[in-house]
Design a protein that fits this description.
Structural class: alpha/beta
Helix content: 25-40%
Strand order of the largest sheet: 3-2-7-18-19-20
Radius of gyration: 21 Å
Distance between the termini: 22 Å
Strand content: 15-25%
Largest sheet: 6 strands, mixed
Length: about 400
């Protein structure tokens, strides 16, 4: 971070707000924050300012992935969750974060895993380069619930520390996450059958069951909110989404398989929907045919449910559910905004879902090109309002006033 004022110029800017388009923009950055935004020539240059002219490119706020997992794993090794030492995984996750940053992802929400709070602290303190990290810590899950890896020995899964059954144990797990430095609580609300190939998602989104009783979900949410932490619930299917909304959760993760009334309830609740279209889109193309068919079934239901949610005015936030190579490499996360646009959102709605809308959900002072906010700024080669695929054409990345990517000289 530098105290010298940096002056950024380009051909146009989208500020992160609806209708927020500027021609010939100029952005002043001081001490890692945006000091002024306007048109070129409207204000004298500060003394000693460093001018960066991005020419014909387009400014917009840094992208936010509101649902991923910083696990530091290569999922080609299915045993890595238990056999790879955490320090080694942390080093790999640090490399993943650098890759995300250079791809234009300037903030993320780590939605389950033991490394999240530590990585968030390391980024905050400047020890590693990465996006701003909001972290849930390890999942909270019932036995035989969402992430109970039933194919593995029980003692292996027990050592992950995610299980909570009954009112007292649920309250205890929330307090443990707070002690570990979690920024939010992540609950597993739905699960497929033991025979399902995609047990966490279920082979059929219409045939999932609840992981928790109403009372258990209520105490998880109550304890988190009492301590000032928001709650996100993995919820697929009508029953799980309604249960989560009735308990007062702050975001529904995935959230497909719902009907008209539940979509209306979602919109009225104020909770955000994070549809995570990217994971099924990639797995429907790369998984073996029988498994790919399950993912395609989810993808079809996701799109229908998203369109219902949009019809009723629900808040939509962009998140990929990416974990790492080889199936969901971290880096091309901006594709979620493309998929949201393909599913029925306007380009601007999709961009808001991946910038200012996501920042509001994460509680971060970023997501828009406005004075006082963190200077998380991208320059793209194309205009994403005219062509949403331009979100992949990142030429310049600044996060908190530090440049991590710039065009070739």
């Amino acid at each position: 971070m530098t105290k010298t004022t940096q002056v950024l110029r380009a051909a146009s800017a989208w500020t992160g707000r609806a209708g927020g388009i500027l021609a010939a923009p100029e952005i002043h950055v001081t001490a890692g924050r945006i000091a002024w935004v306007g048109r070129q020539g409207q204000r004298p240059l500060p003394e000693g300012a460093q001018v960066v002219d991005l020419g014909s490119r387009h400014f917009l706020p840094g992208f936010i992935d509101a649902h991923l997992h910083l696990w530091g794993l290569d999922l080609a090794d299915a045993t890595g969750l238990w056999t790879w030492p955490l320090p080694y995984r942390a080093m790999r996750a640090a490399a993943d974060m650098r890759r995300l940053l250079e791809s234009g992802i300037t903030a993320v929400r780590c939605m389950g895993g033991p490394l999240g709070p530590v990585l968030a602290k390391a980024v905050r303190e400047g020890h590693v380069a990465g996006p701003h990290v909001v972290a849930a810590g390890e999942f909270i899950c019932s036995r035989a619930g969402t992430w109970d890896h039933a194919i593995w020995p029980r003692d292996w899964v027990d050592q992950l520390g995610m299980f909570a059954d009954g009112i007292d144990e649920c309250r205890k797990r929330v307090r443990e996450r707070i002690r570990e430095g979690a920024d939010l609580i992540k609950i597993g609300g739905s699960v497929g059958e033991h025979t399902d190939t995609l047990r966490q998602w279920g082979n059929d989104p219409a045939k999932l069951r609840l992981s928790y009783s109403d009372g258990e979900v209520a105490v998880l949410v109550e304890e988190a909110h009492r301590n000032g932490l928001p709650v996100a619930t993995h919820a697929i299917g009508e029953a799980a989404v309604r249960q989560a909304l009735e308990a007062g959760v702050d975001s529904i993760e995935h959230g497909h398989g719902i009907g008209e009334e539940t979509a209306r309830m979602l919109a009225g609740s104020g909770a955000a929907l994070v549809p995570t279209l990217s994971l099924p889109a990639l797995r429907a193309k790369s998984a073996p045919p029988p498994v790919a068919a399950h993912w395609q079934r989810h993808r079809d239901v996701q799109i229908a449910s998203l369109q219902l949610a949009l019809k009723h005015g629900a808040r939509i936030v962009a998140g990929t559910d990416f974990v790492g190579p080889p199936f969901t490499p971290l880096g091309p996360d901006a594709m979620e905004m493309e998929l949201l646009a393909e599913a029925g959102m306007s380009a601007e709605q999709a961009l808001i879902a991946g910038t200012s809308g996501a920042a509001a959900l994460l509680g971060l002072e970023t997501g828009a090109l406005e004075p006082g906010l963190s200077a998380d700024i991208l320059a793209l080669d194309g205009d994403p309002l005219a062509r949403i695929g331009a979100v992949r054409e990142v030429a310049f990345v600044m996060k908190s006033g530090v440049v991590y990517r710039e065009p070739p000289a």
